[in-house]
Amino acid sequence: MQAMNYSLTRLTSSRYQLGLQGPCHNVNWVALLSVSLSAMKISMLAAEAVREEPNLWTAQFELEFRASPVGAESIDYLALIRRRPLPSAPELPRLQRFAVARRADGTLRVMADADEQSGLLERLLSRVSGLGLYPNEVKLRATRDGLRSSLALRGIGGLTPAEDTGAALETLLQRMQVRRSELVEPPRLLGRVNLQRVLR
User: Fold this and answer.
1) Phi and psi torsions of 77, nearest 5°
2) What is the pLDDT of residue 28?
3) Segments of the chain with pLDDT less than 50
4) Domain count of the chain?
5) How confident is the model at residue 62, as a pLDDT?
6) In this structure, is residue 88 part of a structural domain?
7) Is residue 92 within 8 Å of residue 127, measured between CB atoms?
């Protein structure tokens, strides 16, 4: 049986690009990778993971090892995504703003901005998995203000999420949003109208 494989490319003295490609049956593997890297003080600066077939993935991650005591080439990255179940998230991620839209194929698209947080993807994905939602696509990039994430979510087995699941997702994300009184600057709402333009 074909297995997922990985490649590691050095970009700078402390920054590496991790590539992963192949089949993976663990629906939470991106979250597992995120929490494992965070535990080793490895920052995820950018990510793009796409499921091209039911269990076939292509992914790239830009990782910063400056604060980590672990060497990039000493890690078994495949072991990180299959070694244990996803743990319960210790706390909700704190989002500066978010937007949700349903695409033509029924997929729920989430766009969320956050101040830079360790393990953001792990905490975000673990929470939405509680609604029976799992990613077909994950994107993350560092911005001047923090982190911007984009998720394309479907139900278990690739099923189209029900309308009440979409409503529950919005309620969950509202709980994650930082209150206005906690903001240093006023929030810049992504909004439904602007979402398609932002995602291009």
Assistant:
1) -65, -30
2) 86
3) 1, 181, 183-200
4) 2
5) 97
6) no
7) yes
pLDDT of residue 199: 39
User: Global pTM?
Assistant: 0.83
CA atoms within 13 A on the CB side of 61: 23
State residue 157's pLDDT score.
83
Domain containing 72 equals: 5-80
Residue 152 backbone dihedrals phi, psi, to 5 degrees: -110, 115
How many angstroms separate the CA atoms of 164 and 172, rounded? Answer: 12
Q: Supply the CATH number for residue 56's domain.
A: 3.30.70
Name the one residue in this structure whose structure tokens are 């529950």. Answer: 168
Residue 160 CA, chain-centre distance (Å), reads 20
Q: Indicate the residue among 45, 80, 115 that finishes a domain.
A: 80
Asked if residue 155 is part of any domain, the answer here is: yes
N- to C-terminal Cα distance for the chain? 36
